[in-house]
């Protein structure tokens, strides 16, 4: 039996509220190896993805012998497929007609533009990474993703439509296209973006930058690792992803680090309590009159 349109609309609104909550929680996380997140209001999240992994492993791969390259489990990246960027705009960018039909404002010749122009992100742009805007606007009732920098690296514009309008058009992604039919999470969209943007593509888009956490003060590291552990647990428990095993490896190591820090923090706090209590103890002891 088909779901009535009104009930379906209410369900989508509830799911959108859940997605907005994910943006607020996940957008505060730091310490990923291949991307960084920047919260921008309640509905928008900027995701900066590296164009190429800044890793010694990449150089080692290209300089190693053929036999070394063929060893299973040797690499963190997929070198099998040749880089397919830039892609034809018709394969990667949502068409104007599709946008008009989805926006509900087609009669006004309005598609699915982002709420803010890409010039707003000018301070975040660089040549080593590409910016993406992940947004869940209430008026669209569905999350979409827009490219905000280095468009020419990803998309080969054919001139069929106005190039400026195409740059403000959302991407054709499997995750956003399936959002209304299945329980797509924010991290599913981020994972697809990382695989799309990076070459060679990482097997684990959520790889952790452990050096980042090592550089944090103990108290801040304890909070940051706890938040990241919670996030990685949600990733591996939310579905059967091809990268789950590698995410779980990082989860195990980060969890061990978190509890080591928790133990150390407890010892430090106990030591401070003893130091603070000792002066009062000796002050009280000096007040007793000896017999």
Instruction: Kindly state the number of beta strands.
Output: 8
> Element order, helices and strands?
HEEHHEEHHEEHEHHHEHHH
How helix-rich are the residues, as a percent range?
Answer: 40-55%
Rg measurement, Å: 25 Å
Strand content: 5-15%
Domain DUF7886: 116-259
Protein name: DUF7886 domain-containing protein
Pfam families: DUF7886
How would you characterize this protein structure?
The chain is 48% helix and 11% strand. The chain has twelve helices and eight strands. It has a four-stranded antiparallel sheet with strand order 1-2-5-6, with helices on one face. A two-stranded antiparallel sheet has the order 3-8. It is globular and about 75 Å long. About 2% of the residues have low confidence. It holds the Pfam family DUF7886.
Question: Can you give me a brief rundown of this structure?
Answer:
The chain has 291 residues and is an alpha+beta fold. It is 48% helix and 11% strand. It is built from twelve helices and eight strands.
Key descriptive features of the protein:
single chain, 291 residues, alpha+beta, 4-stranded antiparallel β-sheet, two-stranded antiparallel ribbon, globular, DUF7886, DUF7886 domain-containing protein
């Amino acid at each position: 039996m088909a779901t009535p349109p009104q009930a379906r609309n209410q369900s989508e609104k509830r799911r959108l509220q859940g997605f907005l909550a994910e943006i607020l929680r996940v957008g505060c996380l730091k310490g990923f190896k291949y991307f960084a997140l920047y919260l921008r209001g309640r509905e928008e999240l900027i995701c900066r993805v590296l164009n190429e992994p800044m890793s010694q492993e990449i150089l080692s791969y290209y300089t190693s012998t053929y036999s070394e390259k063929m060893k299973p489990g040797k690499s963190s990246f997929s070198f099998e497929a040749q880089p397919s960027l830039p892609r034809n705009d018709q394969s990667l960018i949502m068409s104007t007609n599709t946008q008009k039909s989805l926006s509900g404002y087609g009669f006004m010749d309005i598609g699915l533009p982002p709420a803010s122009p890409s010039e707003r992100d000018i301070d975040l742009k660089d040549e080593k990474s590409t910016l993406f805007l992940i947004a869940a606007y209430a008026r669209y009732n569905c999350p979409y993703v827009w490219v905000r920098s280095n468009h020419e690296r990803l998309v080969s514009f054919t001139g069929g439509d106005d190039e400026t309008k195409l740059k403000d058009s959302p991407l054709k992604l499997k995750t956003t296209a399936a959002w209304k039919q299945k329980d797509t999470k924010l991290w599913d969209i981020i994972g697809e973006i990382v695989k799309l943007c990076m070459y060679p593509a990482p097997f684990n888009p959520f790889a952790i930058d452990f050096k980042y956490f090592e550089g944090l003060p103990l108290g801040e590291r304890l909070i940051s690792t706890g938040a990241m552990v919670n996030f990685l647990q949600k990733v591996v428990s939310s579905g059967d992803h091809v990268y789950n095993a590698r995410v779980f490896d990082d989860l195990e190591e980060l969890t061990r680090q978190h509890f080591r820090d928790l133990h150390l923090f407890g010892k430090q706090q106990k030591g401070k309590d003893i130091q603070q209590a000792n002066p009062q103890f000796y002050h009280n002891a000096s007040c007793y009159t000896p017999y």
